[in-house]
Amino acid sequence: MLNCKVFGQTIKSPIFSTLSFVLIVFVIYACSSIYKVSLYPSQLTSIQIRAPQQAAHNNDVQAAANKTLQVQATSPPLKVDQSSIIVVSNNLTEQINIEELEEEEQDGEAPDPLIPPAKVTNEERMEWFRKKLPDLEVLKSTNLSRSFHDRVVKFSKNQCATQFFMIWFSPARTFGPRDFLAVDTLMKANPQSCLVLISRSLDTRRGYKILKPLLDRGFKILTVTPDLPSLVKDTPAEAWLKKIKNGKIDPGKNPLSIHLSDLIRLAVLYKYGGVYLDTDFVILKDFKGLRNAIGAQGVDQVTHKWTTLNGAAMVFDKRHPILFDFLQEFTTTFDGSKWGHNGPYLLTRVIQRVGNTPGYNLTILGLKAFYPVNWIQINGFYKKPVSEEESKWVEETVLELNKETYGLHLWNKITRELVVNEGSVIDRLIKSHCLICRDAYNS
């Protein structure tokens, strides 16, 4: 039996008091440690998240909805919804846009798969290209791109006064103010028109945010991922695509994106009809009344007859026979190493050869329609007038352009870095023809 008197004396002893204190401290430490481990695991946990798929719709496509993302987190709580991923880590909450995360990965320092390596032999370039083929999504039909035709057809039923097309192959983050300017001025000059912006990178939430100022004003703009196989189906270019996908055609020294842009603009006009425009224009006039027309870029100074055409602006009816001839020429004479061979020079070759064929009813517009100034002289359009004579020249030039030019081609590869000086021709045109009129058109 327990002797209470002895026990009472024991608990009062110094030894027992010490042991009791140690035991209490140990219990508190153990409980605290267990609690801390549950909140702050000592090792990072790799958590695999599959974002739920959401139906695609105009200007806001869940392009990466099925993409598996690897997220490194230091605590388990994670929440996923249809528009974003919420990551809670060390008491910090981060909201990651799925499409933008995917784009940042694509827009990183990895080499562009459409740009061939420099200073290699034809054989070495072909070897490189065949290895890259599995990564070239632009040549294939994907879950996203297969909806291209249905989306374009549905969009074109929006009572479009004119159907416009543009192409953007670069990352969305590089679609800057001067590229936006083309869309901005187009919608002001042609407010009842529809614009299809063919672009994988802009067919995202980021693209929607870029165009939102115009969409909020009710303008009809669709960004859509291209489907090259369906675009060239039942055209002469179908054979070219098959060969390039099989690695039997040398893509050439120039970026493949340039050639694909040349091809897609022809195929889109052939399949749907309308107006194609590059993204380096200031649009000045309504395009109503233009039909089966293309602009001259060069004119003989003696005969005043056109010498070179340019496909930066084209207007054609659906299934126009000259477009079939363009696609045939692209397929049979493709050369990826000669600048302009598959673009402006192709159009020039074909129209010089078949332009007078009965039934084609082509209109070759003069220089003033789209190319009133060439890439050598356009620098002067950006300069601020510093004398009365120069101010008079600016005034006369602006008046003439507003009267006779549908859209001024800006030759962005040459002029992108030029400053738009106050009072210059370009400054005057932007201020009188833009809607959003951003102050950042110099960036």
From TrEMBL:
<dbReference type="Pfam" id="PF04572">
    <property type="entry name" value="Gb3_synth"/>
</dbReference>
<protein>
    <recommendedName>
        <fullName>Alpha 1,4-glycosyltransferase domain-containing protein</fullName>
    </recommendedName>
</protein>
<dbReference type="Pfam" id="PF04488">
    <property type="entry name" value="Gly_transf_sug"/>
</dbReference>
<keyword id="KW-0812">Transmembrane</keyword>
<keyword id="KW-1133">Transmembrane helix</keyword>
<dbReference type="InterPro" id="IPR044789">
    <property type="entry name" value="Put_A1-4-GlycosylTfrase_plant"/>
</dbReference>
<feature type="domain" description="Alpha 1,4-glycosyltransferase">
    <location>
        <begin position="316"/>
        <end position="439"/>
    </location>
</feature>
<dbReference type="InterPro" id="IPR007652">
    <property type="entry name" value="A1-4-GlycosylTfrase_dom"/>
</dbReference>
<dbReference type="InterPro" id="IPR007577">
    <property type="entry name" value="GlycoTrfase_DXD_sugar-bd_CS"/>
</dbReference>
<dbReference type="InterPro" id="IPR029044">
    <property type="entry name" value="Nucleotide-diphossugar_trans"/>
</dbReference>
<keyword id="KW-0472">Membrane</keyword>
<feature type="transmembrane region" description="Helical">
    <location>
        <begin position="15"/>
        <end position="35"/>
    </location>
</feature>
